[in-house]
Amino acid sequence: MAKFTLHSIDSAPEASQKRLQGAKDEMGMVPNLFAVMAESPQLLEAYQTLDGLFKEAGFDKNELTVVWQTINVFHNCHYCVPVHTAIAKNMGADDGITESIKADEALSDEKLEALRKFTKTMVEQRGDVDGDAVSAFLSAGYEKRHVLAVVLGIAQKTMSNYTNHLAETPIDEPFKKFA
Questions:
Q1: CATH code assigned to 14-178
Q2: In terms of C-beta density within 10 A (0-12 exposed, 13-18 middle, 19 or more buried), how is residue 138 classed?
């Protein structure tokens, strides 16, 4: 496997430096995912942009966690599962969501379970889902915009999950306890 650089702000391509500095200012660190993505300023910008857009797509903290972790677990992302466990804790999301998703168990909340099932089906079937899957999701109380928001979440997490597989991104020290 090709070795990828964990860029610092100074070693990153100039077009990535401002984004890495912004991450450090906001989080107190440059996450290793961003340090790897910095090699491609366009990938880093796209990922950070999609992250912001997905957070505004109409899901609450528990729903965001369901979508992110369902995708992360499906893709077996060694990096994103613990990082999003920490993010969920920081947001105040239900701690049981990640554990249930990791165990491939149904969520106790019916609406969240419908979201988990729909997201998993979308990833498993690469978006080629039948009308019954969409209808079941909508019947759980979601809207058509949420169907498309799941697509947005899949795009975001596919970028990070695939990057982490390719780069074998090391888990940042603050997130290791969630691995």
A1: 1.20.1290.10
A2: middle
